[in-house]
UniProtKB/TrEMBL annotation:
Superkingdom of origin: Bacteria
Official protein name in the record: ATP-binding protein
Keywords: ATP-binding, Nucleotide-binding
Entries under InterPro entries matching the protein: Schlafen_AlbA_2_dom, Schlafen_AlbA_2_dom_sf
Gene Ontology molecular function, alphabetical: ATP binding
Alphabetized Pfam families for the sequence: SLFN_AlbA_2
Disulfide bond as UniProt keyword: no
Length: 434
């Protein structure tokens, strides 16, 4: 996971020249510019070249057009820039040629010059298809914009008519498992275990680009990517001050299908936290149409039939660890199957589930703060919300928001200062995902 989001989804207010420069030069070093299906560079507007790029990306998966950046040069020499007048002329030209597919346009000043780089961000799901330029329908193949044939045009029309942006399945495709829904807490991540104290589950979803429907399954490369991401994640080894990772706690696949697989750590039994609480983790990953879902859960177990309540700081660490792990696994899998960008974060949600004969105030230590009411809720819910972004900072903010909601719903007071002052865990401060 990068320290910040990519240009595909970074909020416009956070995009500056340094972000554009780093994005382009990183892509250049990785040899991702010449054959990209979602990125096009234009040194300047020439004829209809920019409008054609916008239309082609709109008719495919969306993406970025950077105007003022050379396709031919390398390194810093790429950044030629355009004038403010050229930028205004470009936007007028796009309004004329593709009025119903206008991209998000972000002008970025090149430092110490009067030149701009125009960042055009195209959302292919936000327009009616097909998008034409002077009567021609174009679409994107790696490195090129090409005219669409009759079947491609018919597919583009059908894309809107059938609502082909969620879990719609192309004709002839294999059957998908249903997307994880509100019943996710009952989804069998583990066999029944009578030693469970409390389970904390989160479901995260990412909407992948349209091209995933051409190969709508999860092969061995996706499974390896998910395992690698989770084995580098904070779960279960870095949560609650655990010892360095041991082979016994590594993630392993326990069940696999063409569009889903289940993983567990450790494969058998539990591992112990620094506080002596036995824990285990399990995850279910599913691809349903364009939706990549991960349901990830951590279980705290009874220790010799003794209830050791989860502290509020432990709960925060657990929530953050699960969010970071879900995000990194989604990123790794979507990259492995060639559908990482542009992708869109969907609403995530979570559940706090005590053992059936227990209640939240028993499994969660809330005695340090006053509480209005005496109710004993049987569980807690982190309601659906969309992460602000994919960085650790974004996910940390979401974890704190969710815990605030949970504690307020339980009637707790005066905890806000503690939560705002709690330090980011050391493992999160140093965490970097590829």
């Amino acid at each position: 996971m990068p320290a910040t989001n990519s240009l595909y989804d970074l909020p416009a207010a956070q995009i500056d020249y340094q972000a554009v420069r780093d994005f382009v030069l990183t892509a250049e070093q990785a040899d991702l510019l010449t054959e990209s299906i979602t990125l096009e560079l234009k040194q300047k507007r020439s004829g209809n070249n920019v409008a054609e790029a916008v239309a082609a990306l709109s008719n495919t998966d969306g993406g970025l057009v950077l105007v003022g950046v050379s396709e031919e040069e390398t390194g810093e020499a790429r950044f030629k820039g355009i004038s403010q007048r050229d930028f205004e002329g470009l936007m007028a030209h796009l309004r004329d040629l593709v009025p119903r597919a206008l991209p998000e346009a972000i002008p970025i000043r090149i430092p110490n010059t009067d030149k701009l780089v125009a960042l055009l961000r195209i959302d292919a799901d936000a327009v009616l298809h097909p998008v034409l330029v002077r009567g021609t329908t174009l679409y994107r193949i790696p490195g090129h914009n090409v005219p669409a044939d009759r079947q491609r045009v018919l597919d583009l029309v059908a894309r809107d008519q059938t609502g082909f942006v969620g879990t719609q399945i192309p004709s002839g495709a294999i059957s998908f498992p249903p997307p994880l829904a509100g019943s996710a807490p009952d989804f069998p991540l583990w066999p029944d275990e009578h030693t469970t104290l409390v389970t904390v589950r989160f479901k995260g979803e990412v909407l992948l680009p349209q091209r995933i429907l051409e190969r709508p399954w999860l092969g061995s490369v996706a499974k390896e990517a998910a395992l690698d991401a989770l084995n580098r994640s904070p779960i279960p080894d870095k949560v609650w001050g655990m010892a360095p990772p041991q082979q016994s706690s590594a993630w392993q696949i326990t069940e696999a299908r063409a569009t889903s697989f289940k993983m567990r750590a450790p494969l058998q039994g539990t591992v112990e936290s620094a506080g002596g609480v036995p824990v285990s983790a399990s995850a279910f990953l599913s691809l349903a149409g364009r939706t990549l879902s991960i349901l990830l859960g951590m279980r705290c177990h009874l220790k010799q039939n003794e209830v050791i309540p989860l502290g509020l700081e432990d709960l925060y660490w657990c929530v953050l660890a699960e969010l970071v792990s879900i995000s990194s696994a989604c990123d790794a899998v979507s990259t492995a199957i060639g559908a990482a960008e542009p992708s869109e974060l969907q609403a995530w949600e979570g559940w706090l589930q005590p053992q059936s004969d227990l209640r939240v105030p028993i499994v969660l230590n809330i005695n340090d703060y006053p509480r209005d009411g005496t109710e004993q809720p049987i569980g807690g819910w982190f309601p659906p919300a969309r992460p602000r972004g994919r960085s650790v900072a974004d996910l940390d903010a979401m974890a704190r928001d969710w815990i605030t909601v949970l504690l307020l719903e339980m009637g707790l007071r005066d905890f806000e200062k503690w939560l705002s002052n709690i330090a980011l865990p050391e493992w999160a401060q140093h965490m970097r995902f590829q």
